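Input:
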Amino acid sequence: MEISPLTVNRLSLYLRCLHSLEGEGVGRISSLELAQQFHLSAAQIRKDLAQFGEFGIRGVGYEIPNLIERLTSLLGLDRIHPMIIIGFGNLGRALAASIGFNSGNFRVVAGLDNDPAKIGRRVGGVLVHDASETAAVVAATEAEIGVLTVPAEAAQANYDRLVAAGIRSILNFAPTRLSLNAAVRTKDVDLRIDLEELSYFLSS
Amino acid sequence: MEISPLTVNRLSLYLRCLHSLEGEGVGRISSLELAQQFHLSAAQIRKDLAQFGEFGIRGVGYEIPNLIERLTSLLGLDRIHPMIIIGFGNLGRALAASIGFNSGNFRVVAGLDNDPAKIGRRVGGVLVHDASETAAVVAATEAEIGVLTVPAEAAQANYDRLVAAGIRSILNFAPTRLSLNAAVRTKDVDLRIDLEELSYFLSS
DNA sequence: AGATGTGAATGAGTTCACAGCT
DNA sequence: AGCTGTGAACTCATTCACATCT
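Output:
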């Protein structure tokens, strides 16, 4: 069955809530309690989980440690995901150094840039390579995720190079419409569009 | 009529495409050509635009300068939107300095942090104030958008302070589920969830 | 008794297909 | 003739409500 990204994103959310409950020592919880505590929908929690099997106990609820384990495994968070960052401008550098981004199972293992002043440097613990060596760096680091933080004009060329290098997925911050390769899962983070949405609702 | 954020986000996209065409000297375009060039849906372009009036000429298409003007005005991009950044860690600093973020009609006019080492400093052209002075800073700068780049634990407190200070909208980067105030439009950018989505589809 | 898991109902969003202008 | 604007059809997503199980 094909799972929607909306569902997957909610699973992430549920997992985060469960970790927080586990930290408080709670051992089990019903969909209703979970929904009320975190402003979610109980029916949706059950529907989302039910797509992957029967995780709960009728009349009781869900065992938190068990559910955490199942969701962690489902989301692929039981193994390390090496990432490379392409474009060491402000945003690329910040993400390389950010503990929120570079933590848990996600590890920034290398950087790429085309600026000679940056190549060979170690920025926030990450060594920056020449972007022309994308293929070699992807192969050597076994990077699974490429984080595109280059200017819009450079995005398509760097995207194509990442795809050719055999990367498996891409998180794109460049504010441009990439011509996509179906074999590589790509997720856009377009802050310009986010701001313009806020602008619209400010004015409306 | 209540417009969906999905529609608004596509308007941003259309506007971007139109700017690019205008730069190439194209004067008018049909929904079909626009769709083909940028991998969009012609029917959806027409439906989206039709929600706001009749912008096109039947049998001909859309006048690009005219449509750009209408969309710019619709999205509220014909005036400046002052922004403040709350939390001058890696991400906050990067956004303050990033031309992609801090450009066009969006201007970072001040920063807030609770670290004495940062307060009073000018980082990337932006003066950092004590977070306890949120209300005064919002009033003085007339900031419309608050960009929350604090750690998850600090997010709710800073959110509440922004709301109390009279901010109109918030872009939240903290990976947490905020308890929201309905009067303040809030948009989440949750990079952790984006990465976990990629992780899921890597494994599945 | 009480909460899960799920078909059925509703709602949101997209695509189709064509009437109506220019 | 050709493209917009739009009701109708369809697909996707969420919510409801209850049979099912512990």
